[in-house]
Write a structure and sequence with these properties.
Number of helices: 17
Structural class: alpha+beta
Oligomer: single chain
Number of strands: 21
Radius of gyration: 23 Å
Strand order of the largest sheet: 14-18-13-17-15-16
Distance between the termini: 25 Å
């Protein structure tokens, strides 16, 4: 949908989960399609805004949204996906799945070179999946748990050997989620400390130009890109504009031609949608369906009684947050952690926590936290994602809501790297609110939040709550290998019922993302990845 009027209506996007339930071999052999681009013009510069500034530029090592935005322009994956979720070849030109679903053979594109001129080979694919994604990617430990090895019979063939059929695997191979990394650059030393993390060498349509902290990132056209004639743009400039009003002004003036997700205050979208030079669109977000969560650090004693967590859930006015913070670009979460847009896995047959301050106070009393003479029970600190004003505003509403039941919250602001380190490395937090992408399938999206094996200090956006439940682990691991669609649906229904009973995290809203761009820009949102696509199809009329 591209019309602003339609955008404000209830979204009915197709979702990855539907196709994820196709039998595995059929899924992998889905017909390939190439998105059409109308009358692209060669050359020109597009400027987009991004906030916050990414800490590194390689999404194989960091799954924060700003990192994905940049990395996807520099690195290609084996495939990408059209809006019907058919597979489109990228670094892989063809693939074949064995009858038992335990082997996937990829034929790799010949003649591809890294930005430094070195040849791309199957050894890069093997190294990427076995040494980087399985070990260091925030979701990789779960996504690629069944990947036992990658064989390389020749330079242009890679064979994935699986321990069990893995119905979701082909949904995790796009460049944003699983960028193929250069073995010759990362094979020695700690990948997390490699200088190439901020000066990347990829195979994508754009090459690294310069990274000026606090200012901008310059990407240059890759003149040796394998898809001849692309990219159309000569340069892509990514400006780091921290002030949302300034981002809106830059879009209105034409100084910036593209922005997405947190680009402007949601209260400004209606006004910008009336600007004749701008387009507001919810198209291109099929791959990235997100949920805004409230997360408890279960290592802290005050959260270990589930009645305290339930009390807080009852104290959160989700409908108010949808209307006043998200300006109806979200839906109140009335189900589990799987977003309502993933209709094959979504369920509202879970414990419900309606806004009820009396119930919340009663639960706190029962848990041994009575109100004092001043009405106060205890205090805590809430950290919030620095990705846009909405999370700060949400944290402020949470502070106000919890004050009504005697819990005093202090908001803690910080930059992106500090926030990530505090929550996912140091575990130095009480409460946290942020968003998590459901991506294509529960294994790729939400498993990392609830699987005990995803408690990995230093791995961002994984199990930050330190939640561990053997029955939850059993269900999640069963869902990873179950091929029967109905059985798989039931597994994730049970999983969500446990998640909403134990409440290590609490889904607040299901988010409807959008893009704002100048009408001179063509070729955006041609695939299901939208903002996370490689922009090789993007052109600009200048």
């Amino acid at each position: 949908m591209t019309s602003f009027d339609l955008m404000k209506s209830k979204l009915t996007r197709r979702v990855f989960a539907r196709s994820a339930l196709i039998p595995f071999a059929a899924l992998a052999l889905a017909p390939m399609a190439t998105p059409a681009v109308s009358q692209p013009k060669q050359g020109g510069v597009m400027t987009m805004s991004l906030d916050p500034e990414p800490s590194i530029l390689v999404s194989a090592l960091n799954s924060a949204s700003p990192v994905y935005v940049v990395s996807s322009k520099l690195f290609d994956g084996l495939v990408t996906y059209d809006k019907n979720f058919n597979l489109i070849p990228r670094l892989a030109t063809a693939w074949k799945v064995s009858d038992d679903g335990l082997n996937i053979e990829f034929k790799l594109r010949d003649g591809v070179t890294w930005h430094d001129g070195k040849p791309f080979t199957s050894e890069d694919v093997q190294f990427t999946f076995m040494e980087i994604l399985k070990k260091l990617h925030p979701r990789g430990k779960g996504t690629f748990a069944n990947l036992q090895s990658v064989e390389t019979p020749d330079a242009h063939t890679a064979v994935f050997k699986l321990a069990a059929p893995t119905p979701y695997l082909m949904r995790a191979l796009a460049g944003a989620e699983s960028p193929i990394m250069p073995k010759h650059i990362y094979k020695d030393g700690d990948p997390m400390r490699n200088p190439a993390n901020t000066k990347p060498v990829g195979t994508g349509p754009f090459k690294f130009g310069e990274f000026v902290r606090g200012s901008h990132l310059l990407l240059q056209r890759n003149e040796n890109y394998w898809d001849k004639g692309k990219p159309y743009l000569d340069q892509l400039i990514i400006r780091f504009i921290s002030d949302s009003a300034s981002r809106a002004a830059a879009l209105e003036s034409g100084e910036v031609q593209y922005g997405a997700q947190y680009v402007v205050p949601l209260s400004d979208v209606a006004r910008l949608g009336k600007n004749p030079t701008l387009e507001v669109s919810t198209d291109g977000w099929e791959y990235n369906t997100s949920v805004n969560y409230f997360e408890f650090n279960l290592r802290k004693p005050q959260w270990q009684d589930v009645r305290v967590r339930q009390a807080i859930a009852h104290a959160i006015d989700k409908d108010f947050i949808v209307k006043n913070i998200w300006h109806n670009f979200a839906t109140a979460a009335k189900g589990g952690p799987v977003t309502i847009k993933q209709s094959d896995f979504y369920t509202n047959d879970v414990p419900q926590y309606e806004f009820d301050l009396k119930k919340a106070a009663q639960l706190l009393d029962e848990a041994g936290y009575p109100a004092g003479a001043d009405g106060k029970r205890f205090s805590a600190t809430i950290d919030y994602s620095p990705s846009g004003d909405t999370f700060r505003q949400t944290a402020e509403i949470l502070r106000q809501n919890l004050a009504k039941i005697g819990i005093t919250l202090t908001l803690r602001a910080q930059d992106g790297p500090t926030y990530v380190r505090r929550v996912w490395t140091d575990n130095d937090f009480d409460l946290n609110t942020y968003s998590v992408s459901n991506i294509a399938d529960p294994v790729i999206g939400i498993q990392r939040l609830y699987w005990s094996k995803a408690i990995q200090p230093g791995v961002a956006y994984s199990n930050g709550s330190s939640y561990s439940n053997p029955e939850m682990d059993r269900l999640l691991e069963a869902g990873m290998v179950e091929n029967d669609p109905e059985k798989r649906r039931q597994i994730y229904k049970q999983m969500q019922q446990i998640a909403m009973t134990d409440l290590p995290t609490f889904p607040i809203v299901y988010i409807d993302w959008f893009s704002i761009y100048n009408k001179k820009v063509k070729g955006l949102n041609t695939t299901a990845l939208g903002l996370y696509e490689n922009f090789s199809d993007v052109s600009i009329d200048q």
